Amino acid sequence: MLEKITTKVLNDKRINEEEAIFLYRDLDLLTLGQLAQQRRHRLVPNKSVSFVIDTNLNYTNICDAYCSFCAFYRTDPDDPSSYTYSVDEMIKKIRKARNKGCTTILMQGGLNREIPFNFYTEIVSRTVKEFPDITPHFFSAPEIIKMTEVSGLTIKEVFQELKKAGQRTMPGGGSEILSNEIKSKISKFKPKNSVDQWTDVHRNAHETGIYTTATMMYGHLENDQDIIETLSHIRTVQDEAINSKPARFTAFIPWSFKKDNTALGKKIDKEAGPNQYLRIIALSRLYLDNINHIQASWFSEGYKTGQIALSFGADDFGGTLFDENVMLSAGFYNRTSVEGIKKLINDAGFEATQRTTEYDLIEEMSKAT
């Protein structure tokens, strides 16, 4: 089977689910990595590895989704550790991030029914107006569905209003594993209890002209087939976007579940390690043949594993993430600087190149002007 798959990869042919299972489960790690790196260099032929200067801000930790894998959320507004910030307070945080050199602000929050829809549109429009050099990479699929509930608008209408306010990209959080069986065990309440809710949001985003990323959080209750199913859903949505829509997924970003301080963690004996992560990075490069960028995460998997992933098919190193609270709530802390992220990339044998949220290389953009 390996010879057949290799021929497909070298001729830019699509591999199927059975072949994906073989690659993920049976092929030795180094051969898998070499095959993925061949595909990487066909799609992204230079030695550049991109990164973005960004931070991750949260506007509320009050949430009614009750996901068992999350240590971040609070349910009681009177809890002294709960918070909901105003638009003015978030603008101050964005200004502080801009002063650190951030060009992208990743912003997400809990599903808080007390937040009106105009909060979301105002924070986008003010960010664009007051910080025109910053891209608001805001919200996620579950938050979009919460916006439909508080506004009475459809998903598409929500995106139309956000785009009118100035939003052009959205992160891919909220997918976890795209299997209804797994969702029934780790996120059983709306709007995170079905695959269709996540895929419908991204379909509507692409149709509205808003670019998104796709993500996967693994290392809990899923099996190998669930991994392939997740990648298949993402590949299908991307096929539709490429064929008929003005926007699409810009990148795929997997990370492993962090168990500390979570209800789900009590059911997990051991967190997923580097071997599984590298297999997923390589498999995603080979299976997601319609997504150009695969992101390696120094942040979630550690510096060394992130560096090695750059030789297993990844071409992007994520962002600086000056602030991050979701994984921190699960007992996981990892930080770097702009110079630190450049050194990690260069020491791995690649050329660190700053990018935009849309994955345009800033160095190449400056040469073109």
Main-sheet strand order equals: 5-6-7-8
Strand content: 5-15%
Q: Kindly state the number of beta strands.
A: 10
CATH class: Alpha Beta
Major sheet summary line: 4 strands, parallel
Could you state the order of secondary-structure elements as H and E? Answer: HHHEEHEHEHHEHHEHEHEHHEHHEH
Query: What is the helix content?
Result: 40-55%
For the residues shown, what is the average pLDDT? 92
For CATH, the homologous superfamily is named as: Aldolase class I
Count of alpha and pi helical runs: 16
Using the CA coordinates, give the radius of gyration: 20 Å
What shape does the CA trace take?
globular
Give a description of the structure.
The chain has 369 residues and is α/β, with parallel strands linked by helices. The chain has a single domain, classed as TIM Barrel, CATH 3.20.20. Helix content is 46%, strand content 13%. The chain contains 16 helices and ten strands. The strands form three sheets. The chain has a four-stranded parallel β-sheet. It has a three-stranded parallel β-sheet with strand order 9-1-10, covered by helices on one side. The protein has a three-stranded parallel β-sheet with strand order 2-3-4, covered by helices on one side. Strand 7 (249-256), helix 11 (274-287) and strand 8 form a beta-alpha-beta unit. The longest helix is centred in the middle third of the chain and has 21 residues, at 224-244. It is globular. The relative contact order is 0.16. Residues 324-328 and 330-334 have low confidence and may be disordered.
